[in-house]
Amino acid sequence: MYANVIVDITHEQLDRVFQYLIPASMHVEAGNQVLVPFGRRNRKIRGYVIECTDEAQWDPNKIKEILEVFPSSMTVETQLIQLAAWMKHRYGATMIQALKTVLPVQRTVKQIEKKYYILKEEQAAQAALEEAKRKKWKARIRLLEALLETKVIPTDLALQRLQVTGVVAKPLEAKGILSIVTETAYRNPVHSMTLNHNTIQLNDQQEQIVHSICNAFDSGNRIPSYIYGITGSGKTEVYMGIIEHVLKKNRQTIVLIPEIALTYQMVMRFYQRFGNQISIMNSRLSAGEKFDQMERARKGEVNVMIGPRSALFTPFQKLGLIIIDEEHEAAYKSEYSPKYHARETAIERARLCDGIVVMGSATPSIEAYYRAQQGVYRLYQLNKRAVNQSRLADVSIVDLREELKLGNRSIFSRELTQRMEQCLEKKEQILLFLNRRGYSGFISCRSCGKPIGCPHCDVSLTAHKNGWLVCHYCGYSIPIPAKCPSCGSAYIAGFGLGTQKVEALTAQQFPKARLLRMDLDTTSKKNGHQEILEQFAAGEADILIGTQMIVKGHDFPNVTLVGILAADMSLYAGDYRSAERTFQLLTQAAGRAGRGEKKGHVVIQTYSPDNYSILAAKDQNYEWFYDQEILYRTMLHYPPKGYMAELLVTSDEENEAENAIHCYAALIQNEYNDTIKIIGPANASVGKIKDRYRKVLYLKSTNEILLIQAKDRIEQYYHKTVPNSKLRIQFDFY
Ligand code: ADP
Ligand code: ZN
Ligand code: ZN
After folding, report:
1. Contact present, 665 and 697 (Cβ < 8 Å)
2. Fewest beta carbons less than 10 Å away: which of 87, 102, 468, 670?
């Protein structure tokens, strides 16, 4: 046996793998630290084993032997290499791809500096504010008011949002009212800010959950916990209670939050509780800044890392807790190979470091809730709002087929139009939500509302540019029909509605209303997302139009109406998860109305008023939705009642890809005839990207382990037959 060893644990050096012979008496596995002779003079150095193999890459007589293995040295690097090995095995990828996912990119940082105004003397500031008001110093009033509220303001934000320059701040600094502090960009100025020690008193439900999970942590019970709690029920407070306990035990925490939910308010809550022990990661940091943060974590300078999916690989030496907030979010699944899911990967990482995983959501993924029902996770519930019993909004459903029958071709139903007018009159705010998730060009009938579906897979067909409708699961395809196959109506169409179009139509119908639009176009510049939300929160517009981006994050107390223009878009997205995604989106969108004192209303416009995901969202009834959905998954053997793997083969040569995919199909057919069902082969939904042809094969089984074995077989076969061709394979499990 040979061991592939890397001697330098950085992302850039991963391609420099050295092979060593494993002496017969020695036991070595991936992740082990070893002592090896290196270079011409056989200098003794330490390295990490990334893979064991029986294939020699060089002349076997020239391969040197490993001198020593340190099996007990469980460094964080060892854990991360073991995690990479697990990801490679579980999801299918090369070891190098897996390692590149878990190890940070090393870049030297050009220290970026950031300045802050920090409030020093509250009473003096109050007095200065009075004075400024008397003398009508407008800029000074703005600065002091903002500082009294938030205590800390980054200078660039003060300049952009408050039009306050250094000239305004300097005299206040001289008087000792505020200080101007410079920090490197990734640090936060909180050490100069008073921490919020009188934390919120948890209610009984919250208290019990914190207590139970902390007890489990102390007693070595490692079953993952799931907190199913409605929005606003105080999950974040529960997380913070558990983090505090874990920190006291000298262990560290990773908190995963979808980037879109990582708002200023959220971050501030964590800062105020944990101060400088916190570090925040987001995709806007440069590679250097990220590396720097990772280094601080490795050295133990911070103990809580908050960030999106990739924060899972923070190299904490004493990791004890991983929290996954909004567990249902699609962003937790990586779209790059290895196509890992953060939920499963977090559980594996926690196992390696003897830590625990705590997940939470108001709309748990079907997989996770199923596991909780099965006892694989411990389920906790928070079923009331934490503050002043704010009421849920009323929801009405409008049948768009009826509107069409009555000759209303506008994108606004009569009910929505009327409610919008009332709302504008009362000077209250409106959210218009355009459901474009999963929008990939399905075709449906505007008379009977039925989409054109696949007869084999119970998902909708997707329209391709060449005028054909294609099933993404089995490759079934037909030309776009001229008439609805269900009712014969000629009124069939795709939903070609975009946010810009909606904005134009809204302006036409409500000429006096002030509009804001939020989509990828308007948020692409740095902080665009946050700015639009702030403008809207500040009442600078009456109507905010947007995609799923608008349903998360901010609270808008003055929003009393949410209009969901076409709830169906995500319902027929050609994906077995479409009902689940629709339910989640509608529930979240509905949760936006009536956050304040005023009662809210939600209008859901749909072509499928009887669909269970829409009915369940109307009543905000997760359990009922789950019961229906799990039945459907059981019948069709979709996850979690069955597993699927996608094999993607790509090549510059179409027939090479075609031959290979048929070979693999035959291989699986021969060896797993009874246990794995094969769907395809077929062209991928995008059949060619950058001149590479793409063919897919779907494997379905009730046994996940078998699918992973089948993947191993295909990989073996691939390595034997095509090591040097342009052919590539890639797996995706779901
Ligand atoms: P979730 O994460 O479940 O949406 P949060 O933790 O954000 O809920 O709580 C919602 C709001 O309720 C926050 O403003 C929070 O400060 C407040 N809150 C949470 N728990 C309590 C409590 N026990 N007492 C008072 N307010 C609370
Ligand atoms: Zn029809
Ligand atoms: Zn199909």
Report:
1. yes
2. 670
Q: Which residue has the tokens 């006096």?
A: 512
Distance from the alpha carbon of residue 200 to the mean position of ligand 1, in angstroms: 8
Nearest 10 degrees: CA dihedral of 706, 707, 710, 714? -170
The secondary structure of 544-578, three-state, reads EEECHHHHCCCCCCCEEEEEECCHHHHHHCCCCCH
- The pLDDT-based confidence of 190 (bands split at 50, 70, 90) is very low
Q: How far apart are CA 290 and CA 98, in angstroms?
A: 18
Q: Is the CB of 233 under 6 A from ligand 1?
A: yes
CA 194, chain centre distance (Å): 32
Closest ligand to residue 484's CA: 2
Cα–Cα distances in Å, from 164 out to 121, 124, 710? 19, 19, 63
Token readout for 583 is 């339910």
Indicate if ligand 1 lies below 6 Å from the C-beta of 205.
Answer: no
Give the contacts of 595 (CB within 8 A, at least 6 positions apart): 390, 555, 556, 557, 559
The end-to-end CA distance of the chain, in Å, is 34
- Look at residue 3 and give its three-state secondary structure: strand
The answer to whether 651 touches 692, Cβ cutoff 8 Å, is yes
- Cβ-based neighbours of 377, under 8 Å, separated by 6 or more: 223, 224, 225, 226, 359, 368, 371
Q: What integer is the mean pLDDT of 347-376?
A: 96
Ligand 1 pocket member 701 (CB < 6 A): no
Q: Are 467 and 479 in contact (CB under 8 A)?
A: yes
Q: How far apart are CA 195 and CA 277, in angstroms?
A: 12
CB count in 10 Å sphere of residue 245: 19
Asked if 515 and 543 count as a contact pair (C-beta separation under 8 A), the reply is: yes
Look at residue 92 and give its three-state secondary structure: coil
Residues in contact with 662: Cβ distance below 8 Å, sequence separation at least 6, in sequence order: 681
Residues paired with residue 697 on neighbouring β-strands, in sequence order: 647
pTM above 0.85, yes or no: no
Contact 712, 729 (CB under 8 A): no
For residues 387-397, give the mean pLDDT. Answer: 77
232 pocket-lining for ligand 1 (C-beta < 6 Å): yes
Q: Quickly list DSSP for 416-430.
A: HHHHHHHHHHTT-EE
Contact 234 CB / ligand 1 (< 6 Å): yes
* 271-313: pLDDT as tens digits: 878 888 888 887 777 777 788 888 889 889 999 999 999 999 9
Pairing of strands 443-445, 492-494: antiparallel
Tell me the CA–centroid distance for residue 715 and ligand 1, in Å: 49
Single-letter residue type at 146: A
CB of 236 closer than 6 angstroms to any ligand 1 atom = yes
452: tokens are: 């054109």
Overall average pLDDT of the 712-723 stretch: 81
Q: Which helix (H) or strand (E) holds 505?
A: helix 499-509
- One-letter amino acid for residue 147 of the chain: L
- DSSP conformational letter for 152: E
| Bridge partners for 605 per DSSP | 398
**Atom nearest to 201 CA in ligand 1:** 23
For residue 495, is pLDDT > 70? no
Structure confidence by residue, pLDDT tens digits, 612-666: 999 999 988 999 999 999 999 998 888 999 998 999 999 988 888 999 999 999 9
CA dihedral 324→329→333→335, nearest 10 degrees, is -140
